Amino acid sequence: MQWRGRRQSNHVDDQRGRSGGGGFDGLPIKGGIGVVVVIIVISLITGNNPLSLLQQISLDNGPSVSQSTPYQASPEEEELSQFVAVVLADTEDVWNHLLSDYREPTLVLFSGSVQSGCGNADASTGPFYCSADEKLYIDLSFYEELKNRFDAPGDFAQAYVVAHEVGHHVQHLMGITDKVQGMRGQLSEEEYNKLSVKLELQADFLAGVWAHHANEIFSMIEAGDIDEAMNAASAIGDDRLQKQARGYVVPDSFTHGTSEQRKRWFSKGYQTGDINQGDTFNATSL
Amino acid sequence: MNLPSYRFDILFGLTYFWPYLPASKIITLCSGEDEDKATM
Fold it and tell me: Which of A33, A62, A117, A268 to pair with B28, CA 20 to 30 A apart?
């Protein structure tokens, strides 16, 4: 993928080197338990993380002592952070072009662990999206895993990861994510897993739609790039992962789709570039 | 309003451990090892 010298998004929040702990350490809370009670009530009403509100109050009350140490990234990781900022900028250009009321998400780079609006997560969670704060989270060490453990090398495989998470953001803006997550608890685990697969395959499709339009605008796709993305989509299919982990597959437990499905829906998005072709929820077959 | 002291403990505990509660809204790129273990 041709990316050097191109615009980088300014919606990247670099939290590498910061701890994602969830305690009160270093939080000078004034007002006692009454403030905590009020914050909990506000949090229950708004659905926000009370700790985030407490941290905001702490920041408003003046600077607190931070224990974070300067993060020393390798030159390769620095280059990777610039690369994902270019990919994010590409997604902004494409989705602003396709959707009139697109809100640009923030990409959080973290190392080790992170506190998101959806709770704490660590590197083992892998890249993820949180609709509560409209942010995507990536520990760049995942790309090493993608290349070595999942055998999916290449810069466009890396771009696909960002585009997939942005696809979830698009679903959130369209109200699809909330609808699906609202069904949790109303369905059996198996039934909910089926919905989850449809959500994930649609995010793969939207990643393909992004690739289609980004190439139309920037002509940045090089020979082998689409194969890299398809290989990555295939490498993280549920059947492949379960087979590797256990030696057998349990289709009812699939939450993201098979390798073949993930590859096919990405490809469909790339070939058509038409968001109306990606209704996985009403597709006769996935 | 005088709340019994244990309620303070509950409220404090709820706030403190909130970030550690299951993060059901996190949408991952692929199913993880924990997920595999849970469904084995």
Answer: A268
